[in-house]
Amino acid sequence: MSDQFNEELITAIRKRAESESGAATSADCEEITVATELTSLDLDSLDLADLLWDLERANNVEIDLDLSDAWSNLHTVGDIVEAVRPLLAKEA
């Protein structure tokens, strides 16, 4: 199921992955879905922190996640969606 937040997150991930030197190729970035593994995009914990910061700025909210726990528990784009969506809804 695709929705606006999924697309916003995928766009943010695509931009971050494409901007990283040595990161996933543009072709890989075009195929990002909620099932895409973060490690397949060569994103690391710092990239996740930056991505969450980008989402905070874009949505004018504070995403309160413990990054070490998040990196241990968030493995796919869909995992990020499921973790962040309730935080965004709470802030709205």
For this entry, give a set of tags.
92 residues, single chain, Non-ribosomal Peptide Synthetase Peptidyl Carrier Protein, Chain A, PP-bd_ACP
User: Which H/E pattern describes the elements?
Assistant: HHHHH
CATH architecture: Orthogonal Bundle
* Number of helices, where a helix is a run of at least 4 consecutive DSSP H or I residues: 5
- Most strands sheet: none
Tell me, briefly, the overall form: globular
Q: What is the CA-atom radius of gyration, in angstroms?
A: 12 Å
Give the end-to-end Cα distance, rounded to a whole number of Å.
Answer: 22 Å
Helix content: 55-70%
CATH topology: Non-ribosomal Peptide Synthetase Peptidyl Carrier Protein, Chain A
**CATH class type:** Mainly Alpha
Q: What's the β-strand tally?
A: 0
Beta-strand percentage range:
under 5%
Structural class: mainly alpha
Oligomer: single chain
CATH superfamily grouping: ACP-like
Query: pLDDT average, as an integer?
Result: 79
Organism: Sinorhizobium terangae
Protein name: Nodulation protein NodF
